[in-house]
Amino acid sequence: MGEPADELDRELGDEPRLTLMALLTRSCEPCRELRPKLERLGRERADICRVVLVDVDDRPEVAERYGVTAFPTVICLTRGREVFRFKGGALPPSMLSRLAG
Exposed (0-12), middle (13-18) or buried (19+): which is 99, by Cβ within 10 Å? Predict the structure, then answer.
């Protein structure tokens, strides 16, 4: 069986929707504030995007694989390929307007 990060890469590579992969830690206040916003976005816009929350306290290999050292970081992927990323606890207004229903 492969590494968990490899399995995640395969899973995301098969995803046709935009994927927002958030790398979060339990000790990070901005991470705790961003988590429910991303969960809500994932529920409300599941038709066009998928939200994947990665707790790097449990899965540090994912942060290493994607070169993430600051939290929270959200990586936007299309078919497993990175389109862009942002750091910090707020979703960019430009992203929200594109995902608005």
Answer: middle
Helix (H) or strand (E) holding 19: strand 18-24
Phi, psi dihedral angles at 18 (to 5 degrees): -60, 135
The residues annotated as belonging to the active site are 28, 31
Alpha-carbon span 86 to 76, nearest angstrom: 9
Closest CA to 85 of 23, 4, 8: 23
What is d(CA 93, CA 80) in angstroms, rounded to the nearest whole number? Answer: 23
Q: DSSP readout, 25-51?
A: -TT-HHHHHHHHHHHHHHHHTTTTEEE
Nearest to 63 by CA among 24, 29, 101, 96: 24
pLDDT in tens, the chain (101 residues): 345 677 888 888 888 999 999 999 999 999 999 999 999 999 999 999 999 999 999 999 999 999 999 999 999 999 999 999 999 877 777 777 777 75
